[in-house]
Amino acid sequence: MTTKNSPYAVNVYDLIRHPGTMREQRVNIPVTEKLGEGLLNVPEGETIDLDLRIESMHEGILITAEGQTTAAGVCGRCLIDIEQPVQVDFQELFAYPSEEAFDYEVHDDHVDLEPLIRDTVVLSLPFQPVCRPDCPGLDPETGERLADVPDHEPTEIIDPRWSALTNFSALAGLQASDTDEPRPNSAGTNTEKR
What we know:
Layout: E1 9-11, E2 22-30, E3 40-41, E4 47-56, E5 60-74, E6 81-95, E7 106-107, E8 110-112, H1 114-124, H2 163-166, H3 168-172, E9 183-184, E10 190-191
Antiparallel strand pairs: 1-8, 2-4, 3-5, 4-5, 5-6, 7-8, 9-10
């Protein structure tokens, strides 16, 4: 549980048990620990800017938020450093403490947005980020970035297991033998070879 001095804690003292009251608030939350583990993440030290709508309900405090931040990492195709804007929005009810178990609850006079923000931001990050939609990636032989060499001719790599299929004369060697043995057709009857 986050303490009320945490940057993720939002004070709701004035709204507790006052159904129908509401306030809007803009908060800038410093990221104290990176969000995400893939090729792209929101690094420590970045800021998440949130526009909050905080409403008191009979069951608890309803938080509606829209936010933005910047993620940094590497392109999944060419491995250059990239930055991308991240847009998030969520709505969640923070219930008053009771005997029932809720995912999110009001703690004394504040709500803890950290787990909700962390989940929302991490799920919004692309699994395979790219520097641009048509990024050609890296040359598989040389490892050079193909976007830096626009007139680059791709190196043709042939799997040795398939090399016979790329050579027409070798393909002739794969033709059936000249035996006079009859073969069954798809209907199950024997047909003579022509």
